[in-house]
Small ribosomal subunit protein uS19
Amino acid sequence: MARSLKKGPYIDERLMKKLSGMKAGDRTIIKTWSRAATITPEMIGFTFGVHNGKLFISVLVVEEMVGHRLGEFSPTTKFVRHGGKMQKEIEKGKPAAPVAAAPAKSAKK
């Protein structure tokens, strides 16, 4: 849900205080747990270590990110893969068996 326009974007004050003491383009990583903080134009060029619940993921802020939240660029879940017989065949490089052939074999039994 979007934040009300009369309230304005949420900007973490401690995060902005850390930014004020740094030079633009500085490559030091600024660690933060504030995933809900909105990216502002002042943050462009800085690298943030955004916490995803387990570790800090480095996010280099570019111009296209302005208006988004920091947490959008630090995923909290990791996609492992879908399992099963077809997935194993795909990984080995073999062509997957046709899906229509499988029910035909079971119908003969």
Summary: The beta strands are 29-32, 47-51, 56-60. Residues 13-73 form a domain with the 30s Ribosomal Protein S19; Chain A fold (CATH 3.30.860.10). DSSP finds three helices and three strands in the chain.
